[in-house]
Write a structure and sequence with these properties.
single chain; alpha/beta; five-stranded parallel beta sheet; elongated
């Protein structure tokens, strides 16, 4: 996915801040090591004093002196490394390839591209209620303990929540989920809680309602302007797509085609998608098409939500 210069600038600034923070930490740890192991300071001072001597030996052509100095430097570096290892002194780089410079061989390092993706997806997800939807604030108290069928709504929802928590912990697996149930049963909350847990593990997530996504895709397709980034690419390439409220959007021929392309392309690329819907599989087939329904039946794990509309319960308690 291509990103605008502004996105890459923000990614590089984050890398610079991380590098500066770790450099300060290394300086503090080195000063502590100098106090704890004085021999390290002696080695560093000797290595520093050898610079001019090596330069003079090189300029004068004194190969014997130069080789002696180089051998001494190798010995000192080996001793220094041994003392560092014994003292457990190390501040690892977040990226060993570019050593947190963000650039490798005059190109953005993979770590910078990944960071740019996360920044981009964060911008795209600004309208989602990510702060309010977590596993730890999802209450099962609103679901009845009494069973009208084989399993009580509370027990069913305990299993659904546990399944989604395990999905997030094991991510990425390529598994797709279809969250099915009436309005107000917690589908949006738990799908965003899953997205939050995946984001915490540094994966890229894109969240959108079906209506909002189709509007964005349609504007992008028929716009004459060249966008700084592609919504379709963001949807196709993000690690996890959460598509909310499938079935509530105003559906057009373009919408049917776009939904199929999104679902099918992510199945083919083995990238996980979570779809929330109030529709049954029969209603999905009737509203969209047999080929969309067959993709969902054959490639999605259904999770059934049960209970009463939580928003109505909360409103009645006020």
């Amino acid at each position: 996915m291509g990103y605008s210069k502004a996105i890459y600038n923000e990614a590089m600034e984050e890398k610079r801040q991380l590098r500066q923070k770790n450099d300060l930490l290394r300086e503090r740890m080195l000063l502590k090591l100098y106090n704890d192991v004085p021999r390290v300071r002696e080695i560093d001072n000797e290595l520093k004093s050898m610079g001019p001597k090596i330069a003079n030996a090189t300029l004068s052509g004194n190969k014997e002196a130069l080789n002696t100095l180089k051998d001494r430097a190798v010995t000192l570096h080996a001793e220094r490394e041994s003392l560092f290892s014994a003292a457990d002194y190390e501040v690892p780089f977040s990226c060993e390839k570019c050593r947190d410079e963000g650039v490798l061989n005059n190109r953005y390092c993979d770590c910078t591209v990944k960071l740019a993706r996360l920044i981009q997806l964060k911008m795209l997800n600004q309208s989602a209620p990510f702060e309010d939807s977590r596993f730890d604030n999802f209450s099962l108290d609103y679901y009845p303990k009494e069973a009208s069928g084989k399993v009580s709504p509370r027990l069913r929802m305990e299993k659904v929540k546990a399944y989604l928590e395990n999905f997030a912990k094991a991510f990425p697996t390529g598994e797709n989920l279809l969250l099915v149930g009436g309005t107000g049963l917690g589908k949006t909350h738990l799908s965003i809680a899953t997205a939050n847990a995946v984001i915490d593990r540094a994966f890229g997530v894109f969240y959108a309602s079906a209506e909002d996504l189709l509007n964005k895709l349609q504007r992008e397709k028929f716009s004459r302007a060249t966008p700084s980034f592609s919504f379709y690419d963001a949807v196709a390439q993000c690690d996890l797509l959460v598509l909310d409220d499938l079935g509530t959007e105003f559906l057009t021929a373009f919408g049917k085609t776009a939904i199929y392309e999104v679902i099918n392309s992510r199945i083919l690329s083995k990238k996980s998608t979570i779809i929330n819907t109030n529709l049954s599989m029969e209603e999905i087939q009737e509203r969209y098409s047999q080929r969309i329904a067959s993709r969902l039946i054959g490639n999605y794990t259904p999770l059934l939500f049960d209970g009463r509309d939580i928003r109505q319960i909360i409103a009645s308690q006020k």
